[in-house]
């Protein structure tokens, strides 16, 4: 998906089209690397401040956009994020992505999933369960916290540094298990490691007894648009042993990137 906001010629837009103006604003928010403020949005969409503010108020009421906690910056709302996920779930590449996951599960012998960021959480797009009796059942549409999941750490680690620091500073780092990282400085150090090593781990930080290993799915511009992850019941396979599957996971992630026009 291009980071450039599409421009619509004036003569191609019905005069005063509120729907297309709203879409233009949504698109500007979605394509911004850092959640924009009102003044920045006005400049991007070339509309007067009262008009943009009025449309944003409506979109916010509808759950399509929201504001970052404690700031005046706008980001995609939960409803918009769910819609984006549903579009990908029903896209033509779904069967191909599912097949890639199936092949990866055959290779690693553990449950694997494909996730995307969803506001302050991670949302499952697809998941293939292992055949082992002991497994974790989470279907498409399930969510996990960003700071306590391997996929979430990937999204945060590759995020613009300014936006990442703002997330750590403003978002509640909820403790889910005794191993959840809740100290902001420790989380920041962990995310630096994720960016450097190119993969992320979750050592029973969200669910006791379950660890996770995740690698990024990159678009043509090198941005992390999804994550490919493997869940590991700690009693069966430790993270140290699971590291041998990173090359197979990265190869699957490269295939996954070809299944949709991100």
Give a quick precis of the structure.
This protein is α+β, with helices and mostly antiparallel strands. The chain is built from ten helices and eight strands.
What does this structure look like?
The chain is an alpha+beta fold and 262 residues long. It has 2 domains: 10-76, Arc Repressor Mutant, subunit A, CATH 1.10.10; 92-257, Beta-Lactamase. The protein has helices at 18-31, 38-45, 49-61, 78-89, 94-108, 150-157, 161-170, 184-197, 239-242, 246-257, and strands at residues 65-67, 74-76, 112-118, 121-128, 143-145, 200-207, 210-218, 224-233. It has a 6-stranded antiparallel sheet with strand order 5-4-3-8-7-6, with helices on both faces. It starts with 17 loop residues before the first helix and ends in a 5-residue tail after the last helix.
Oligomer: single chain
CA-to-CA gap between the ends?
Answer: 4 Å
- Any guess at the CATH architecture of the largest domain? 2-Layer Sandwich
SSE string, helices as H and strands as E: HHHEEHHEEEHHHEEEHH
Q: How many domain regions?
A: 2
Mean pLDDT: 83
Could you please say which CATH topology of the largest domain applies here? Beta-Lactamase
CATH class of the largest domain: Alpha Beta
Percentage of residues in strands? 15-25%
Defining traits:
single chain; 262 residues; alpha+beta; Arc Repressor Mutant, subunit A; Beta-Lactamase; 2 domains; two-stranded antiparallel ribbon; 8 strands
Describe how the helices and strands are arranged.
Blueprint lengths: L17 H14 L6 H8 L3 H13 L3 E3 L6 E3 L1 H12 L4 H15 L3 E7 L2 E8 L14 E3 L4 H8 L3 H10 L13 H14 L2 E8 L2 E9 L5 E10 L5 H4 L3 H12 L5
Antiparallel strand pairs: 1-2, 3-4, 3-8, 4-5, 6-7, 7-8
């Amino acid at each position: 998906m291009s980071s450039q906001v599409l421009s619509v010629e004036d003569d191609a837009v019905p005069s005063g089209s509120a729907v297309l103006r709203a879409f233009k604003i949504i698109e500007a928010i979605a394509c911004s690397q850092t959640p924009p403020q009102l003044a920045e949005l006005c400049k991007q969409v070339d509309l007067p401040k009262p008009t943009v503010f009025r449309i944003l108020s409506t979109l916010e009421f509808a759950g399509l956009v929201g504001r970052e906690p404690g700031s005046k910056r706008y980001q995609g709302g939960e409803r918009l994020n769910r819609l984006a996920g549903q579009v990908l779930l029903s896209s033509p590449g779904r069967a191909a992505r599912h097949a890639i996951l199936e092949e990866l599960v055959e290779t690693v012998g553990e449950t694997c999933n494909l996730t995307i960021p969803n506001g302050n959480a991670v949302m499952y797009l697809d998941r293939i369960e292992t055949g082992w009796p002991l497994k974790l059942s989470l279907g498409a549409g399930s969510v996990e916290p960003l700071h306590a999941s391997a996929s979430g750490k990937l999204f945060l680690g590759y995020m613009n540094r300014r936006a990442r620091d703002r997330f750590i500073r403003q978002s509640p780092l909820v403790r889910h298990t005794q191993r959840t990282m809740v100290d902001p400085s420790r989380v920041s150090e962990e995310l630096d490691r994720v960016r450097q090593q190119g993969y992320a781990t979750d050592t029973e930080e969200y669910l006791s007894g379950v660890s996770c290993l995740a690698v990024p799915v990159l678009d043509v511009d090198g941005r992390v648009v999804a994550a490919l992850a493997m869940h590991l019941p700690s009693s069966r396979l430790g993270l140290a042993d699971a590291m041998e599957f990173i090359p197979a996971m990265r190869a699957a992630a490269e295939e996954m990137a070809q299944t949709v026009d991100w």
